[in-house]
Structure formats: C-alpha cells, structure tokens
UniProtKB/TrEMBL annotation:
<feature type="binding site">
    <location>
        <position position="98"/>
    </location>
    <ligand>
        <name>Fe cation</name>
    </ligand>
</feature>
<keyword id="KW-0408">Iron</keyword>
<comment type="similarity">
    <text>Belongs to the polypeptide deformylase family.</text>
</comment>
<dbReference type="Pfam" id="PF01327">
    <property type="entry name" value="Pep_deformylase"/>
</dbReference>
<feature type="binding site">
    <location>
        <position position="144"/>
    </location>
    <ligand>
        <name>Fe cation</name>
    </ligand>
</feature>
<keyword id="KW-0479">Metal-binding</keyword>
<dbReference type="InterPro" id="IPR036821">
    <property type="entry name" value="Peptide_deformylase_sf"/>
</dbReference>
<keyword id="KW-0648">Protein biosynthesis</keyword>
<keyword id="KW-0378">Hydrolase</keyword>
<protein>
    <recommendedName>
        <fullName>Peptide deformylase</fullName>
        <ecNumber>3.5.1.88</ecNumber>
    </recommendedName>
</protein>
<dbReference type="InterPro" id="IPR023635">
    <property type="entry name" value="Peptide_deformylase"/>
</dbReference>
<feature type="active site">
    <location>
        <position position="141"/>
    </location>
</feature>
<feature type="binding site">
    <location>
        <position position="140"/>
    </location>
    <ligand>
        <name>Fe cation</name>
    </ligand>
</feature>
<comment type="function">
    <text>Removes the formyl group from the N-terminal Met of newly synthesized proteins. Requires at least a dipeptide for an efficient rate of reaction. N-terminal L-methionine is a prerequisite for activity but the enzyme has broad specificity at other positions.</text>
</comment>
Length: 168
C-alpha cells in the first residue's frame, strides 16, 4: 500500500484520544501496512502512529534499527496494537522531531527504560523491556495515541523549541 499523507499540527485529529482495537482483522492489517509504508517513506522516520494518518485507533509502529541513535540497541520493527507502559525508569532530555510538526524540534524529557505490553500484528500479546532511543521513540508514538504531541512536553518553550534547519 502507498504511504499515507501525514496530518500536520494543528489538525484536530492529532489531539484526540484513540480508541482501543477490539479485533485484529483485515482492516487492522491494512492500517498496519499503511503505517509501515508511511514510516519507511518518511525522512528519517523511526515511527508513525495511526492518528498521524487520520485513524483514531491505538496502533503505532516503531523501528529505530536504521537510526544512528538506535542501531545498537533495538528490537527491530515493532507493530504495537493497544500498547501500554507497565513501568518506567530513569530520565533524560533528548531532542525530538515529528512528521506532524515538520518545522520544529524540541527538547523533551522521557524515561530511558520502559517495559511495554502490546499486541503485535498477528494479535499475539508481547511484553518488551526497551531502553535508550527505542524507549524514547515508543513513548513518543504512544503519546500520539493519547492526543499528545512532543510540543506538549517541551521542557522549556523559551529555550527548548527549535526551528528545524532542513527536513529531508
């Protein structure tokens, strides 16, 4: 399936809390394909959540394996349906960007280690311990499912928001 158009802030769908997926069926399989295609087509993208393509369901995809920040520590391509964070540890401020906010990046504080439970693309429940950049990327995508953008988590609007120089 082709990459989908990314909704841009301040589109109202980006601020909606998403509905749980009740069955992993053909519709969800198609959504997953759309999310993966969109992630792979995005410049430097390491994840996409369903609301970013206009679907208010609790589904996101993450893959930091191609990023210099996550290359050494990752679980590969993750399809996450109804994800929930079970525990968090640590904290660090990192610069984040988002395809839905293409003109800015910002300093956001996130947990550096998480335990997350979700269903994969086959509907199988999984639980993973993630750390570093992968943990940050998962938290970022999960925020989308709750109508939260990285802009809502900027550590300081005065010193922590930056105009992106280029977005390729």
């Amino acid at each position: 399936m082709p990459a989908q158009k990314i909704l841009l802030y301040p589109h109202p769908v980006l601020k909606k809390v998403c509905h749980p997926v009740t069955a992993v069926d053909q519709e969800i399989a198609g959504l997953i394909d759309d999310l993966l295609d969109t992630m792979h087509a995005g410049p430097g993208s390491v994840g996409v959540a369903a609301p970013q393509i206009g679907v208010t369901l609790r589904v996101c995809v993450v893959d930091v394996s191609g990023s210099r920040h996550g290359k050494e520590n990752n679980h590969g391509q993750l399809v996450m349906i109804n994800p929930e964070i079970l525990s968090c540890e640590g904290g660090a401020v990192m610069r984040e960007g988002c395809m839905s906010v293409p003109d800015y990046t910002g300093d956001v504080e996130r947990s550096t280690a998480i335990t997350v439970r979700f269903q994969d693309g086959a509907g199988v429940e999984r639980q993973l311990e993630c750390s570093g950049f992968e943990a940050v990327a998962i938290q970022h995508e999960m925020d989308h499912l709750d109508g939260i953008l990285f802009l809502d988590r900027i550590v300081s609007l005065k010193t922590g928001l930056f105009r992106r120089k280029n977005y390729k």
